[in-house]
Amino acid sequence: MKEINIIIILLLSGLLVTAQKKDNILIGSWKIVKLVSTDIHNPLTKEESKEGLGDVIIFKNDEIIIPKGKYASKSCSYPNYQFKVVNAMKYFENARWYLKLIGCKTKNIQIAETSCGVLFSNIKITNRNLIVIGMDNITIFLKKMK
Predict the structure, then answer these.
(1) Separation CA 125–CA 146 (nearest Å)
(2) Does residue 73 carry a pLDDT above 90?
């Protein structure tokens, strides 16, 4: 009887982990499709706005893989994903211009946080196929690859 209980617990644990993996919409490959400066006094040059286009960032349950030497010194292991839905206006302190920039057309927005430093500390999920990350006054748009 004890062995059956252990088997049931292991099976349920496996189902729970599988369910968590399915709920994490970040899992997969994302291609950088647009870079924009959020500093109106320092817009990106044409060259700067094309610098990372096409780069791919891969989100896995146990790792975030970035192009070597770009955006951060190394990939991140065990990102500890945390998801929350927030009131967009309150969260971004009534910055309507920023919400318009990232394409937020709803009252609430889903935010993902990780333990992987500035670039991945505040991932805005505008829809299932588009996310926004940023650092140093640069907003980076990533589109989910099929």
Answers:
(1) 17
(2) no
